[in-house]
Task: inverse folding
């Protein structure tokens, strides 16, 4: 055992106003910062701290690198956008440990939660996640598409609010179209839908629509898509964007 | 229109290390703080700021009070534990607006996200929410129990990781027993289960078990219960509590 450790740090959706004090402190304390290029570049250069920026989709290599450095005594911060525990780096690190050595299982690891994209989106829109909801990644890089179909179907049958992560990318434009086609066969066309892109960042873009009228190609890799339950509703406002929320009451009378 | 507004502030699960800079700033800026007694009492007294602490289960009265004060020009912070958008005050405020007046719909409202209990619990345990998951409140104060049954069943059919909020209270001890009985009929007894009580606070208590062996009465109103998917697993460690995580890969070979 050395004094080394891995701290998996959630940076939140971007702006510093959402970075927790715990995460800030860890970023100062680390001897090494490891992460996907845009997250690492966002952080200031600090004397005595080494930044290791890597490309996307090499999460396991990144986790392995962090384990090696920690076992040499480094204090390694692995940075992740949003919450590292939600479709992000924490699971990759534990996969590396689970398939690794006794030394890996003995390595000290801390996970620091962060504000996830669905929370920033929900806060920006009103309170669409105000009642039972589920979060589904539409990426089929690591799971078969039939698992995604099964989960979307169950989410509709359970009348959950649905938050879709990784709805589309340049190399993977089709999943969001297939997901909408399926959900349209299972849910009312009047169901509220929000495309919340890059919430809190300069390139933020919000599109509010319905399941029947939505254009799925509105979603890109920076977009969080929220699809309502049967209870989710808009509150129309004079001269302003409507609020979107899901009541705590099931069957609320207006 | 006045300069008044409502800011719905997520305090996170308790410790200041999880309070975002945005939330800290809002708590300083507010003329009035409204919330459930323990959340309001946790905050320091500030000159020129009025604290209105109310009992639990009066969320709509609290929202109405905040709307009235904001319409008189006050800057009102409604404080909520965790994330106000997740089973908390934000939906109550929008319910009050939705059933309210034109003045209510014109009132300026901001929602500030916070770290939710399931995120703090997940970070403490490893990465159990590392893949598709759902969040279900077991409180049947505001929704019929058959909706809860429907959602638990769908969550099992979709093989989601399940985070249960409000699993039990002194007046409502039965739901968690009924939920476990149902899930035991639908999922493997080997499914990992975590009871994560008051994570990050002095009275934190963690119980790691399986669906087959769990004692549902372990849960109280401060407990977040996590029930794994078919992929969720423990990583055993020598002399330490095992990690709990859900791989990003479906069907990960170890």
Result:
């Amino acid at each position: 055992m050395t004094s080394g450790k891995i701290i998996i740090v959630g940076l939140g959706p971007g702006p510093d106003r959402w970075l927790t004090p715990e995460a800030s402190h860890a970023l100062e304390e680390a001897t090494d910062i490891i992460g996907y290029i845009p997250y690492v570049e966002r952080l200031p250069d600090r004397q005595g701290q080494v930044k290791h920026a890597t490309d996307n989709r090499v999460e396991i290599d990144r986790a392995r690198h962090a384990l090696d450095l920690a076992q040499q005594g480094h204090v390694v911060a692995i940075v992740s956008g949003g919450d590292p525990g939600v479709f992000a780096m924490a699971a990759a690190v534990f996969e590396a440990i689970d398939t690794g050595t006794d030394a890996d299982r003995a390595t000290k690891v801390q996970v620091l939660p962060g504000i996830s994209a669905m929370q920033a989106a929900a806060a920006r829109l009103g309170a669409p996640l105000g009642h039972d909801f589920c979060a589904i990644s539409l990426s089929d890089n690591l799971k078969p598409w039939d698992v995604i179909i099964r989960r979307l179907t169950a989410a509709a049958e359970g009348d959950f609010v649905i938050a879709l992560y990784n709805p589309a990318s340049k190399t993977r434009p089709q999943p969001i179209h297939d997901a909408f086609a399926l959900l349209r066969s299972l849910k009312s066309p009047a169901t509220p839908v929000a495309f919340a892109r890059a919430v809190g960042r300069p390139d933020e873009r919000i599109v509010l629509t319905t399941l029947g009228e939505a254009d799925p190609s509105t979603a890109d890799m920076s977009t969080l898509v929220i699809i309502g339950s049967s209870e989710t509703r808009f509150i129309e406002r004079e001269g302003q964007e409507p609020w979107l929320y899901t009541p705590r009451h099931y069957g609320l009378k207006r």
Remarks:
- The CA atoms of residues 46 and 83 of chain A lie 23 Å apart.
